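During the second half of the funding period, the structural biology subgroup turned its attention to how the target accommodates small molecules. The most pressing case was N-carbamoyl-L-aspartate, which had performed well in the primary screen but for which no bound structure existed. We therefore specified the complex as follows and requested a full 3D prediction, including the ligand pose.
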Amino acid sequence: MTVIFHNRDIISITDFSREEIVHLCEAGKRMYELEKGGKRNSLRDALKYRTLAYMFYEPSTRTRTSFNTAMRELGGRYDGFSGTEGTSVMKNETVRDTVSMMGANHFDVIVMRHPLDGSLQWAADVANIPVINGGDGKNEHPTQALLDVLTLYILNNGKLDGLRVGFGGDLSHGRTVRSLSLALSHFDDITIRWAAEDFLGIPGDLAQLLAARGVTVIRDNTVRDVMTNVDFYYMTRPQLERMPGVTQKDIMAMMQRYRIDPDKIRGFEARVLHPLPVNSEVAEIDYRVYFTPAQAFFAQAEFGIFLRKALLHEMFHQDSYLRYDSRLPDELASGSNRLARAIRGDKQQSMFIDKIHNGTVIDHLAEGTLRAVDAVLGLEHRGYSCTTAVIAEKRNPFIKTNLPELSERDLKQVAIISPEPTVNYIKDGKVQEKFVYLLCRNTNCITRTILEDVPPKFYADGDAIRCRYCRRPYALQTRKVSAEEKQEYLRSLPAGIAPVLYPN
Ligand code: NCD
């Protein structure tokens, strides 16, 4: 198997093979050994003239500075923003445009962190230089997972198969547990044990994915129960910024039983890891644990530098550079989320109060959503006559307008209020096109934001439909779609995430 990182986007840990992860662990270990042997400077010219752009829409200490350190120690440079204040994001600039500007500024690689799930896949689609995911919402943090695996690799003497890892803290709203557990799922005989409050527990879709990838996942009652059966305990902080309405006090109450303190680790060999930062108020790791042999999280953070040096070195240690190309490929302009429905004559039209000759019928809206949909489309102010079927509001509401077509923004607004609307475009009294509009259900997915203009795309994962951006499964809810229509749609989707190709 060839291992190629050259010019590759680093978006999800599931894009790596086992061989690639081990290869990076070996490369990271070599960086670590250079450091230990006092030879840090031996690679000081490796990435001379290379520049890394960091784009941090969310706070970061370790990820950003360790990428910068890695660049500096390899002789490269870095520039960018940390926090959006002082950037044109404050002027409503989209991710697409901001990413394009980094290409135009002759950077060689982007490291980005952003609060929305799937935003990094979108950045990678748009950028014509490689993009590294430094954390997208509660989705993924692949280089954290790689450095965590490097830590396990070094502390466990090169053995990853058979590892038993405990997880604690917030397994639901963070991205590090998702990425690390998926990274471990590449290895054999992995056991994950966890203890946490229900609200902070492993999300169902992740548990399913891990089970399908052969990982044994066991929930325990207490931290000591977990400690009894693991080699490492990976603690995480509650991700309060992703739990609207939950206070620090609520969380302290939920976390109390699950904090790591000297009593809970006494008598065990397991080393305690944490991606950091620790929340000093919740103190999910009691400060006294810092001074015990169990503490391994500062070493873990330093392994982040070795891992990132190894990764950047593999990606860019070559002579050519990518020339900026300001054009965006056409395929980024449209989605793959219109599930085509069969048109059966124009019989359907006859049920409408006024038959329209040219325009759009939005059908099968959810009960009670008619007025909200009408308002969000602003039909009244767009100078188009619109018949809202008030009598039909209770059951099967629909909207008829002589707007000839709806923009992606319009369709998203509708689907956010009323999922899976059926859209009929009418021309000369006949239905020309009829489709169900699908929008990812993950409320934090970048495809759901209106102003970012990310066209929703899906791919087929066996029989499952998955969002290209946040990769969450999409379960079709409407009963209006026939089995054949669904099959036809599945057949039309790509079978995985292929890179977007640039016009040449
Ligand atoms: C993590 C992150 O941002 O996801 N931090 C990091 O990169 N080391 C973990 C966290 O913020 O809790």
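Two results from this model are relevant to the next phase. The chain has 14 helices and 18 strands. The radius of gyration is 25 Å.
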